[in-house]
Amino acid sequence: MKVEFADSFFESLKKMYNRKKITWRFHDAVRYGIPNFFKNIWLFRKSLYAYRWYDYSGVLRFMEDAFLDMAEKSDKFGLEVDVSREKKVLAMRRISKIISNSLESNYIQTIENELGEIHFGKELFDDSDLTEEQIAHNKNVFAKAQELEEKEWEEFFQILKGQDYSKFDPKIDWNKQFDGTGIRGWWD
């Protein structure tokens, strides 16, 4: 059996070699790098404006924008099988919602919708004219709001971490066990 290289093989090697030259790197920067840079500036414009070195909320805003963009693009243009892709998109949207809740700090409002509004005294930070039931209600609302916030933060880190695939049962279909979490698997 005689093995030969076709002429196109060596042409491909030549093109691959040429892609490493400075002219091609310049072309790639102008054609892809710079436009992508400006797209990212536009995508993260609100996050860039609100970013401050002393506050973690700027980092959360970047993450929220990135996860929403990833979810939207994965949903529209993703090449992955629908079953697992849809689970990943839901996880991305959920983590964006958790970040949004944290940035808006709407946990007390959420609990007030469930349990009733907080009672305020006549003076700010003075609850001497409130009844014992009103004070107990306020404490309950604050405690439940803090509990909800901690629960969402735990969910946030669990979504980022993902599942332990080593614990999957090989007898059960993988897609039935997979829940879409795990940032390391959010690529397409």
Short structural summary:
The chain has 188 residues and is an all-alpha fold. The protein is 68% helix and 0% strand.
What is the CA-based Rg, rounded? Answer: 26 Å
Largest sheet: none
Taking pLDDT < 50 over at least 5 consecutive residues as the criterion, the unreliable ranges are none
Helix content: 55-70%
Task: Spell the H/E element sequence.
Answer: HHHHHHHH
- Specify the overall morphology: elongated
CA distance, first residue to last residue: 41 Å
Derived from helix and strand composition plus strand pairing, the structural class reads mainly alpha
Q: Number of domains in the coordinates?
A: 2
Give your account of this protein's structure:
This protein has 8 helices and no strands. It is elongated, with a radius of gyration of 26 Å. It has 2 domains: 43 residues, no CATH class; 130 residues. Helix 5 packs antiparallel against helix 7 and helix 6 packs across helix 7. The chain is mostly helical. Helices cover 68% and strands 0% of the residues.
